[in-house]
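Q: what sequence does this backbone want?
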């Protein structure tokens, strides 16, 4: 029997469509002689569907038609294993449960990449690819991520963070703090989104409230930091786990505007140019034009960041270089990067199918380690106890 991999994608996230592209690419690269693939498309309202029609990206142009050709499913533990069960039965032919061996989340953004999917798999005790709950959650929250890195002595820009409610009640103190601590130009970001959604570069105090309002429409926690004017962006992928990880070559993505936008990332710089390649279609230089020392410094930093948050699987860490100050800062981590950063691994001598093989190995190794830990005590201390009405407080000490 081949290992059956359930690939989850879509979800209630602003990066829903990007996730579809990443997942379709990955499903094509999974070596079928070794693995079976069960696609699990999670709709924007959280329903899960499976079906062969999910393998072709063009089918997603008409979602109602696509879902008509698929079946709604859910996952549960049954008889010591995890199965996918069909929510509706056909009239004449019973749809049998399908056993699943491994969860492969190819999701981006809030409500999925942020530890939510990792939580689902952990709850089911299903081995899964990518970061565990904690590292995924830390990686998604730009403010928490920065403070963990700061604690680890890694270079990040200082920031001011505040809650939307705090600003709504009294904007003036927040605005003053931003002007004093950060100054202009600055960048306003929602703490937990991706794909540049809700991010604005602000050059003057007059522009600041509007930028904050925009960020507040996406998140209830906002982050403000200094905007680097002489900016070069460098990304690097890391593969492995905390015990053993390696960094890919670096890339330099090209922007069409001051901020690397959603269009730059997924539509190849223009809405007209078609967007079926996801992150892989972004204009970029691989390897990035860097001195050997700089490239080695960034790759070593990338592994430090990976270990600092306890990551696992394949991630992409994005850096910002201030060419005026000649300094490198860690900007953010994508714990499930667009296109799984396969193009960086290809350029590092690892093919996409090999990358997937490695990810599966890492996931099963973590599961074996987990199995060696004690999660439950076999004896039932409630068996044979006498129950009063006072609960634990009422039991006599011996
Ligand atoms: N401090 C900064 N200075 C200058 N540009 C920035 C700064 N922070 C972000 N940007 C620009 O905005 C883009 C998106 O910001 P980022 O923090 O990477 O958010 P996202 O999670 O949406 O990718 C970056 O790729 C970069 O082009
Ligand atoms: Mg980014």
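A:
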């Amino acid at each position: 029997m081949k290992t059956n991999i359930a690939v989850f994608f879509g979800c209630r996230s602003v990066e829903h469509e990007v996730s579809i592209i990443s997942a379709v690419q990955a499903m094509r690269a999974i070596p079928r002689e070794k693995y079976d693939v069960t696609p699990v498309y999670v709709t924007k309202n959280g329903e899960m569907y499976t079906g062969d029609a999910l393998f072709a990206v063009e089918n997603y142009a008409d979602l109602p038609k696509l879902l008509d050709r698929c079946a709604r499913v859910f996952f549960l533990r049954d008889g010591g294993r995890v199965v996918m069960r069909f929510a509706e039965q056909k009239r004449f032919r019973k749809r049998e449960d399908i056993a699943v061996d491994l969860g492969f989340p190819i999701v981006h953004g809030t409500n999925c990449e942020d530890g939510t999917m990792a939580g689902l798999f952990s709850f089911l005790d299903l081995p899964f690819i990518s970061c565990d709950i904690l590292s995924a959650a830390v990686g998604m929250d730009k403010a928490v991520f920065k403070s963990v890195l700061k604690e680890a002595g890694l270079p990040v820009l200082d920031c001011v963070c505040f809650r939307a409610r705090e600003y709504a009640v009294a904007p003036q103190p927040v605005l003053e703090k931003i002007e004093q601590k950060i100054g202009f130009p600055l960048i306003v970001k929602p703490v937990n989104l991706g794909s540049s959604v809700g991010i604005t570069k602000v050059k003057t105090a007059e522009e600041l409230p509007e930028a904050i309002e925009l960020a507040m429409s996406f998140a209830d926690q906002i982050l403000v930091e200094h905007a680097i004017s002489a900016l070069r962006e460098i990304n690097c992928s890391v593969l492995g786990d905390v015990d053993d990880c390696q960094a890919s070559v670096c890339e330099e993505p090209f922007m069409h505007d001051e901020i690397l936008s959603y269009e730059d990332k997924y539509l190849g710089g223009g809405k007209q140019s078609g967007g079926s390649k996801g992150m892989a279609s972004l204009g970029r230089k691989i390897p990035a034009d860097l001195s050997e020392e700089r490239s080695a410094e960034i790759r070593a930093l990338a592994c430090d960041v990976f270990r600092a948050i306890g990551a696992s699987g394949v991630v992409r860490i994005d850096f910002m270089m201030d060419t005026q100050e000649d300094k490198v800062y860690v900007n953010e981590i994508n714990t499930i990067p667009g296109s799984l950063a396969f193009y960086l691994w290809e350029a590092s001598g690892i093919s996409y199918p090999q990358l997937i093989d490695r990810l599966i190995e890492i996931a099963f190794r973590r599961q074996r380690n987990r199995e060696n830990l004690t999660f439950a005590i076999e004896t039932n201390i409630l068996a044979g106890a006498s129950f009063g009405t006072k609960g634990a407080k009422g039991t006599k000490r011996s």
